[in-house]
Amino acid sequence: MSQGDAGPRTRTVTWRDPREGVAAARSLPGLEYLRAIVRGELPGAPIAELMGFALVEVGEGRAVFAVEPAEYHYNPIGTVHGGLAATVLDSSLGCAVHSTLPVGAGYTTLELHVNLVRAIAHDTGRLTCTGEVVHVGGRVATAQAKLTDASGKLYAHGTTTCLLFRPPGAGGRE
After folding, report:
1. 10 Å Cβ neighbour count for 115?
2. What's this model's pTM, rounded to 2 decimal places?
3. Tell me, what CATH number does 134's domain have?
4. Cα 124 to Cα 135: distance, rounded to the nearest angstrom
5. Mean pLDDT throughout 93-114?
């Protein structure tokens, strides 16, 4: 071992069976489903457990996630991998869209655009990512999000376009 090398590190990740959440997502309006995740009544996404972020607040057309950057998020050059910001942005954007959907509707990301504007390190502190819907139509929705620290300093921002899946006979918002 080189000087200063503390040796291998380990991290244990646990998550709940996602099938419970998948079933609930099909039977609840999007906003109620996401509120149940925030309250801990339904499991969040396993990817959130793996990467250490969580949905902390949700409203109509708005979703807020929080993450505490850590050493295990690092890339080989000593900063937090941009994939953490991209994943948290994608989650916030998608959940903002999902919060507007009725029972039985779903979505998938068609396009994700991420701008990384500042390096993130393990000592950056808690970051919050706020996603807000820009438009929800019959087949397509768009949203925007910002990843900021406690003082409001911007680390990344992004946009999404989502394809909406609506149950047969359900009209869309235009």
Report:
1. 14
2. 0.92
3. 3.10.129.10
4. 32
5. 97
